[in-house]
Write a structure and sequence with these properties.
about 80 residues; rod-shaped
């Protein structure tokens, strides 16, 4: 179960990073932007993106929930 939760965390981490970079890009491409040229600082955008918002996306829930339930079922059967 631990590897499954680790992979779920990693997927959510990269999804959160991707969303932050998309928000940085959206802020940088508008005329008269205050974003520094070639800036890769996504910290201001990560602060506005809570973890539960990323953990509970439909895609991650549909992929990892059945795997987690199957894993729990196997643990119960093995005991």
């Amino acid at each position: 179960m631990v590897p499954l939760l680790c992979f779920w965390y990693l997927d959510c981490f990269f999804l959160r990073q991707e969303r932050a970079f998309r928000r940085l890009y959206d802020a940088a491409r508008v005329p008269d932007s205050t974003v520094e040229v070639l800036s890769m600082n996504v910290a201001p955008y990560l602060a506005r993106m809570p973890w539960p918002e990323v953990w509970l996306t439909p895609t991650s829930l549909l992929f990892y929930s059945p795997l987690l339930l199957a894993d729990l079922a196997l643990v119960v059967i093995a005991l």
